[in-house]
What does this fold into?
Amino acid sequence: MRSKKNVNKNSRIVKKDKEEVNDTEARESIKKMLLDINEIIKEYNIPEDTSNVRAVLEKIRERLEYYIKILIQVLQPEDFHSLHECNIFTDSEKSKIFNIYKDLMILHREIIKSEIQNEEKNIIATINYSHSEIKRFKPEIIKIIEKMQESWKRTGNNGRVRYFG
It folds into this structure.
């Protein structure tokens, strides 16, 4: 007759094996529903063993918030470096940047709405949509950053700092 201790230990092992199978199945199911899973894993630094779609969406939201923060530095500069960098953009360019900002804010609100609804199917659809939109805006954001960087290479005021107030 087996002791009660061994039975409990064996049942925990079986339970653990079932949980591992369920996690593996969940990961595979999610990978099938996400359109560019390998690209998403690479782009947003997501561990390959992630089976939680909320974690994936959270990483995408964090990246989106980072991009939004960059645009805000041009549109509403507060720090010294932002004040310097925003001067390189014309009003027309700032208008285009605002349109990108507006579209990214709409996307951000869509992600938040999906997180609140907390429905796996909706979260997966939001991940796919968000990733495609971020890919679409990424080249524009890179151009903006390059121009911000260029502002530091220009010498136009003989090293004098002008008043920004």
